[in-house]
Amino acid sequence: MAKVDVTMPKMGESITEGTVIAWHKQPGEAVEVDETLLE
Fold it and tell me: Which of the chain's ends, N or C, has fewer CB atoms near its CB within 10 Å?
């Protein structure tokens, strides 16, 4: 299983952190390009 860094999109200059509400994938599941990983 490969490990890949996920870059979060910029949300604005004043936003420095966020909270993950839900994961849409489990460890080991395949992920397609542009697929939603989390909320």
Answer: N
What's the one-letter identity of residue 1? M
What residues form DSSP beta bridges with 11?
Answer: none
Please spell the DSSP secondary structure of 1-39, one letter per residue: ------PPPP--TT--------BSS-TT----TT---B-
Neighbour count for residue 37 (Cβ, 10 Å): 11
pLDDT at 1: 66
Average pLDDT, 10 consecutive residues per value, the chain (39 residues) = 80 87 91 90
The answer to whether the CB of 33 falls within 8 A of the CB of 14 is: no
